[in-house]
Amino acid sequence: MGKTTLCLGLMAALKKKYATVGFLKPVGQYHVQVDSCTRVDKDALLFKEYFQLNTTWAHMSPVIIPSGFTRRFLDNEVSEESMLKRIKEAYKETTSRHAYTLVEGTGHVGVGSIINLNNAKVAAELGLDVILIASAGLGSAFDELALNIAMSQQYGVKVKGVILNRVQDDKREMILNYFPKVLKQWGIPLMGCVPFSPFLSHPTMKDFEVLFNTNLLSGHKHHYRRFSHIRLVAGSLDAFRTEATSGELVITPASREDIITEALRRHSKAVGGIILTSRHPPQDSVVKMIQEVDMPVLYAPLCSYDAMKMITSFIGKIRTEDTQKIEQAIKLFESHVDMGVF
After folding, report:
1. Cα-only R_g, the chain
2. What's the whole-model pTM score?
3. How far apart are CA 42 and CA 39, in angstroms?
4. Domain ranges of the chain
5. Sequence-distant (≥ 6) Cβ neighbours of residue 247 within 8 angstroms
6. How does pLDDT run across 45-77, given as a tens digit for each residue?
7. DSSP H helix total and E strand total for the chain
8. How many CB atoms lie within 10 A of CB 152?
9. DSSP state, residue 281
10. What is the crossing angle of helices 3-17 and 323-336, to 10°?
11. Alpha helices in 184-217 (DSSP H)
12. 190-195: strand order across its sheet
């Protein structure tokens, strides 16, 4: 859906309109370790660092759901009351110190239901209206929204508006014509249609490091290099030589020294990065050859098929260091969302 991407744009726009703006992620699914004893939601880290917010971690990310947390809740080791107390205290503190506070949900409206803290309930407990974000389309987007709106209404939460994200250019006019008609039955306005951005969608080598839980073998200056084309090369070397797309990412078995050598040779012309696969790591001689070229290369300890399957279903996350992606997200939001309702 792209909540974080659009919240970056919304935060930047709000900071132009209000003297101070706070950020709160009441319930977080994906956390990062910021020091030896503190874990916070990844978006809290992103917003705190990029927008230089001075709110404490506890007031930006009061509840996170790490692995095993759901079982602890079901075993009555964690209470709903204690979590709600932390969320309400964080919200009270943040709103008392800022003219406007942006509260970001987690996933769709129903996420968090198993611990009795789905987004609709949290919004109701804090007395908040919600803005729903949906992926672009007509039928599928409407079906998704219908479920989210119904759950919001169940908790008495007002849906203030809808923003459609990743709208394809060739469908934009049709969506702008029809979507307000389907929202009319609920009296909900369409607040914006943010276009699809290939730049925001293309993964980086840092994304792949996270995906495969590994580190670059070389090209450490290029963590945020992007790839518009990803290609599996495991067959004929001649075919690889004759077919090329500029800036492509090559996936090949770590044992194919012939393909690796050719990919390294073509670094400046076509190949932008390499992912080596196989249950067995590349030989020391291959690693040495790789490290002599300033190209981002990593090794993923699994077969090429599994690597491709993971990549095709992977959605990269925005990180603080990726300022180009953040700035693009902000620009797209400000150009395509009506800020008059905030």
Report:
1. 23
2. 0.82
3. 9
4. 3-198+318-341, 204-312
5. 226, 227, 228, 229, 270, 272
6. 999 999 999 999 999 999 999 889 999 999 999
7. 15, 14
8. 21
9. P
10. 70
11. 198-201, 205-212
12. 130-135, 159-167, 190-195
**Residue type at 328 in one-letter notation:** Q
**CB-CB contact of 61 with 44 (8 Å):** yes
Task: Please tell me the CATH superfamily of domain 3-198+318-341, with its number.
Answer: P-loop containing nucleotide triphosphate hydrolases (3.40.50.300)
Bridge-based pairing state of the strands 297-300 and 216-218? antiparallel
Give the Cα separation of 62 and 56 in Å (integer).
Answer: 10
Between β-strands 130-135 and 100-103, what pairing exists: parallel, antiparallel or unpaired? unpaired
Q: How many Cα atoms occupy the beta-carbon half-sphere of 133 within 13 Å?
A: 20
* Pick among 3.30.420.10, 3.30.360.10, 3.40.50.11440, 3.40.1390.20: CATH of 204-312: 3.40.1390.20
Is the pLDDT assigned to residue 238 strictly greater than 80?
no
pLDDT at 128: 97
Residue 166 neighbours by CB distance under 10 Å: 18
Rounded to whole angstroms, the Cα distance separating 273 from 300 reads 13
What DSSP line would sit under 305-318, residue for residue?
Answer: HHHHHHHHT--PPP
Which tokens sit at 54?
A: 């001075």
| Strands 31-35 and 38-41, sheet pairing | antiparallel
